[in-house]
């Protein structure tokens, strides 16, 4: 794995290897070994053109726990506000000794461009690009599901598990990456949303589509993943149905959560709109693995940084 731009960069075995390495990383953390010497002398750059809490902080924690140096770069306050291009920003970071670049952008394709334009020859990790993909979020979600749903998770996939993904599929890079990864790992996925929030072309995705959360829950599920309605990506501010109707039909209320099988878990990538797409009692309830997702994100991102930098070192030697 030279770069991680999309789940398409991974084979099933690559994905299992990343999850297994993350499991190993998590075990070292639980034994209070807070720092591994794996990436000592390497520099990871967090290049964030779009706001982030969880992803930016967990990549920073992951790099530090592997003993790498980390440079945090955000568009606000940089020369990008003076019109500097992505190319010149990348060349500057390369000149400063970046060994890997983690990039988030509101532009779909930004990470692909950095990896393939020929400006720099360093591993690029996509930390979310527009409405395209968020592969490390999908990996941490799969890791969390595997821990809850599979006995002796190491080496396993998610074959036979059923995951419902609910909400603003249209604008969700998390949904796109999750549909690809969960199906690669053998799970079946059902997307649930109002028709206005289902992307054109979804028929070619490896998943089912439903317009009724109640019907999807009635068929049984091992996990329900709720998504945020991304008003900031809705051109012209359009949002259909009304917020009240959306919440009634597509929100995960306590009543709906109570109809899930006992073992089923509830996920949300964050940030959440409590009381809108998910009831606070469900977000904080016994089925919720939302805080655990954040914690697992550090181990999974340690694993991803290890894999891309190891591949780059092998290629260079
Ligand atoms: N899940 C996720 O990407 O969250 P942030 O936007 O806070 O990084």
Automatic annotation (TrEMBL):
It holds the Pfam family OTCace. Residues 2-146 form the Aspartate/ornithine carbamoyltransferase carbamoyl-P binding domain. Pathway: Pyrimidine metabolism; UMP biosynthesis via de novo pathway; (S)-dihydroorotate from bicarbonate: step 2/3. One of its GO terms (cellular component) is cytosol. It catalyses: carbamoyl phosphate + L-aspartate = N-carbamoyl-L-aspartate + phosphate + H(+). One of its GO terms (molecular function) is aspartate carbamoyltransferase activity. The keyword Transferase applies. It comes from the Bacteria. Gene3D superfamilies: Aspartate/ornithine carbamoyltransferase (3.40.50.1370). Carbamoyl phosphate binds at residues 54-55, 104, 134, 137, 270-271. The keyword Acetylation does not apply. Heterododecamer (2C3:3R2) of six catalytic PyrB chains organized as two trimers (C3), and six regulatory PyrI chains organized as three dimers (R2). Catalyzes the condensation of carbamoyl phosphate and aspartate to form carbamoyl aspartate and inorganic phosphate, the committed step in the de novo pyrimidine nucleotide biosynthesis pathway. Belongs to the aspartate/ornithine carbamoyltransferase superfamily. ATCase family. This is Aspartate carbamoyltransferase. It comes from Helcobacillus massiliensis.
